[in-house]
Design a protein that fits this description.
two-stranded antiparallel ribbon, nine-stranded mixed sheet
Amino acid sequence: MYKAVRGICLLLGMALVAVGAVRASDEAKPVKLTTTADHAKFKELQREFKTGPDLTKACLTCHTEAAGQIHRTKHWKWEYLNPDTKQVLGKKTILNNFCISIASNYASCTNCHVGYGWKDANFDFKSEEKVDCVVCHDTTGNYRKPPGLAGNVVTKDMEFPPGSGKTLKAIDLSKIAQKVGKTSRDTCGACHFNGGGGDGVKHGDMDSSLAAPEKSLDVHMDASGLDFTCATCHKAASHDVAGSRYTPTAKDAKGAHMRGDTAAGNPATCVSCHGNAPHTAEARLNQHASKVTCQTCHIPRYARGGIATKMTWDWSTAGQRDANGQHIVRKDSKGRITYESRKGDFTLAEDVQPEYKWFNGQVTYTLLSDKIEKTDKPTPINTMGGSATDGKSMIWPMKVFRGSQPYDTVNKTLITPHTAGNDDTGFWKNLVWDKAIETGMKDSGAPFSGKFDFIKTEMSWPITHMVAPKEKALGCTECHAKNGRLAGISGVYLPGRDANSLVDTAGWGLALLTLLGVCGHGAVRLLTRGKTKGETK
């Protein structure tokens, strides 16, 4: 009997040990917590990919609907039909005063397109295999699409530009594909941080300092704090990223709402999280929130991360050469380029105070077909709609970029020059405006008289990133002062800034009456002091 019981106990013990071992092995098994799929285990990705489209074909064997979703987005089309103005807006139709236009410069500009092979106006936008999945989902930091290759990747070492002696190193698409994941500040920033041709050039509130910022630079993207990625706010449904510079939400009256409820409003606004009355302890500040956008007070300055943003660009001075006929490059005391033969003169700045405008979300662009007149005032590349009385506008901080660019003096239209490329007519190589403009206008299909000059322009960019900690928000006197930040804002009465004879007279009258009342009351107290004491006794 004893031996039987002992045997049973041994068997039970061994079983428990075995179960424990299984549990221990389960707990020790490495598990990725950031994804539900380890792409390194997919056999389809464990092979050589000779081109980007070859890799996309592999992606689409599982993600069957992804390319079709991308095709419906602004990131793919680079185009948007404004339902109010009926303007067809986008990279193909809008000119700017930075790099001016992608027309005739496709191969250089489309390295930031979410596709492969967009080298001219005949790109096949219906092709699924030309969608670039990896440009947004790379996690290695090694994925590159060099300018000049029409958005294609280099899978074999190559000399570029041809004849330059410079070598572009190949990337291993297989290794990159096996480590794809969610989008990040790095993947979004690869293009958006470098808009306009360089780090921080265009936007002013977006540059590589936001890749891993401290709280003092951005409270939301603080790498050791909230650590928001771009997609935290710019929530995407079916790859259609929320938020637009073509039709921004200037005034969000819908209030805070649950993430995912796309019918409730734009998830990329401050209000969508913080509501229309975000100041719990200061009701007066909530009154300001009906006319002043959050960014006005909470982004006191932009380009605060140590990277300068470009403030002006004068194309008219491009083309100068030194005594030996070589390109000229001039730099300031900080080593920043202020003149380049291929591009002209620039001014740059850091820690910049925004300009302020009424803005209702309506942006009207000056297109290639629009007539312009050269006057003493800069021609607006975009006009921000809004006023103090339309009920739709808020006071917004803006980066206003000023430039000088070519225009047709006979047709009175802006011009799309051929500024990029290493070909014989490419302006970057030959520095001849006549050829650059003739080629560019031919490629754009727009009429050109053959005569041109340069015209001053300006373009406004709403500021909405680099949100400072609340302790660094603007104080009252920053705006409520004679020469305060809102000195140029019309249509409202600002105490401390504005003078109104009726209001001032009434105010001083009340103050005088108050003073007389206090003095009169004091005099009465003095005259009746003794009498009051006697009555008390």
